[in-house]
Fold this protein.
Amino acid sequence: MRTGTLGVNLPGLLPIIRKYLYTHSDVFLRELIANGVDACQKLLTLAPTEGIEVEKDALKVEIIVYPSKKQLLVRDNGVGMTEEEIERFLTVIAASSAREFAEKYKETDIIGFFGMGFYSAFMVADQVEVVTQSYRPGSQALRWVSDGSENYTLEAATRPEGRGTSVLLHLSSEYEEYAQIWRVRQVAERYARFLSIPIYVEGSSINQKPLWREHPSTVEESDYKKFYTLLYPQRHEPAFYVHLNIDYPIALQGILYFPTLRPDTVLEQNPLSLYVRGMFITDQLGDILPEYLRLLHGVIESTDIPLNVSRSQLQVDPSVRKLSQYISRKVAEKLKEVLHTDRQRYEKLWEHVGPFIKYGMVREEDFAQRVQDLCLVETLDQRFLTLAEYRTHLKATKGEKGYSVGFYATDPAKQGALAALFQSKGYPVIKADTVIDPYWLSYIERREQIRFLRVDAEEASKWLEGDEKDQGLTMEEEKVVREALERLTGLRVERQLLGAEGPAALLLREEAARRYQESLLRGEEVRPTQLVFNPQHPIYRRYLLTQDIRWLEHVWDWARLLSGDLQDKDLQAFLKRDWGLLSPS
Ligand code: ADP
Ligand code: MG
């Protein structure tokens, strides 16, 4: 056996590192700003022990563009570098003073870590020129120039500004965009606007206050909204927000927003932006949020989330996953708070969050436990009831096997008339018109011992039953009517007493069969299976007296109208016949 050591041909490797270090070319600016900010931060840390006088406000990172020269300058007045530091850190890739410094001084505001950031300047520049002067008394300013190959030059220079570092990029022709103010401002704002050291682009400050770091008790409702507009200038106001502040399992702060759902809301996964020490890192956070909360968006900041060099792909480790549990708990807490302090607001909010809460309940039992008392049902007459409140309305429909019957409508416009019959008898009819509702209803049936019936279900109609006293027709007459209706409709026809004020007939579907078919057909209306006629309705007496089939045709259309099945042409025929029947002949 033989052992050996892998050799590296550095000149050959450099162009590869240069090209593949980061996926986005614009991160070079983030890295240069980060270095400037680190340099200022170090000066602040060293100042007291080394007797340097600095005012925090005087420290800054400035970005200046020279469009005609295709140059970009990033300049700071931080610690600067000595010749030795240049040799140790700038000219050795993957050497970082930032990590050493942070460890030595327990300094938590230092951004650098991997010692790769500076080299990213060569992704966009043919040549990089650094003029730097160390804060140490009597330091000589130095100019370091490199084209990103293994060669560089280092010489004495002058730095009229004194202490600090200027990094001048001679942009390569592909990346001349970074000599444009608007582009540079865009990139600088994206990455660096929440940093605590002042950042200037062409003389104007880009800094904004990172609201998530404030204590929630000191932040006003309006501040959250303003902050939202800052993050998402194009969007409508959010429905609600959650301010996160956690120490365990990882230290994390942030603000998450829930969007208002509108017909034009795009239900895409929303970006959640991750910041580390005030610097924007990525909005590709993968599955940090539970699936049913992916509509939440906003900012989170943590120094504990493990990052790799490229920093754009987050390593999802178990602690990050626990975080998703925490966030889901926090969302439930926040909703509870709104429900208990401002019921009206909560009911308005429900329109936006309801579908997702229901989805979460179906998906995850833990979440369901957490939100069961927060879940509302909306009735067709626009009342919002918690599940507990809804239960009290179900007493009247309690069946033998211990379960109660609840009624719902999937299409309030079509089934509204039928639903009104149930509501007039005191049975609330709940709205179940979102995609998640069929699943949610089945889920609630299982856990709450409720049997849900759509208002046009065969089994539902018996709850509409009326007074037995006046039977309306004799057995013989009923038989005549039933047979005539069967011929007319081709459906199974049964009698049911619905009272003289009740409808003449109802078109019904069998609940279980309908649900089954719907799960297969997707979107297509399932055909009715049965017509019940109400012998107590006076229209049948009219038919028997006149033997005019139009009365029964009218009954048929009426039933279809009630269940929303009567379409254009039929509807016109109905109206015409209605007019004919009512006009004295
Ligand atoms: P990192 O920031 O992760 O340490 P970089 O490649 O970005 O790695 O920088 C390497 C080192 O170069 C830094 O640790 C620091 O010592 C030095 N450096 C880079 N830019 C500056 C600057 N603007 N001022 C002072 N030192 C700098
Ligand atoms: Mg750096």
Summary: Residues 10-204 form a domain with the Heat Shock Protein 90 fold (CATH 3.30.565.10).
